[in-house]
Amino acid sequence: MPQNREVTNIPWIIGDDEVDSPADIAMGGRVVRYKAGGTLNVGDSVCISAPGTVNKTVTTAEHFKRVGIVVGGQAISPGIRGVIARQNDVGVQAALVNQWVLVVCTGVYWAVAQAAIAAAAYVRPDTTTAGRVLTATTVADAGKILGLAIDAAAIAGDKIRIQLALQ
Length: 167
What we know:
The protein is about 0% helix and about 40% strand. It has strands at about 10-15, 25-35, 40, 45-50, 55, 65-75, 95, 100-110, 120-125, 135, 145-150, 160-165. The chain has about 170 residues and is an all-beta fold. The chain has one domain (about 10-15, about 30-165). It contains no helices and 12 strands. The termini are far apart. The protein has a 5-stranded mixed barrel with strand order 2-5-4-6-8. Strands 3-7 form a two-stranded antiparallel sheet.
């Protein structure tokens, strides 16, 4: 007998309401709902940590299981699947352990840099601060790349847009 399940693969496209120019890049992508393995914030890069569960980690071996960036969760919008797209909301708590969390797996979204990152550089999960991203190389970081930096980051803590393209 088939089970009734909620939709968990949600397309999402939204304009960035922090810019005046309609020509600027809009946030959006394919979002999947997971269970949080720990406290997660909007903009955290996450990896599979258990079946159906994601968490941020600095463990390099876990980065092969990266799935994307947190865009929303139960702590922000209980009962509805709300996605946060504003740069100023990056860092807001999205979910506590065992709550549902929304992760964008393909598309464009904000991430937090751990160090300086050049525009158009490949990025991967950071090995120093869980949830952040840093510059990747295609050879040494094969299988851990989240995507490409759209913006440059000058220092640790800068919020940059990432074109998610898991490789």
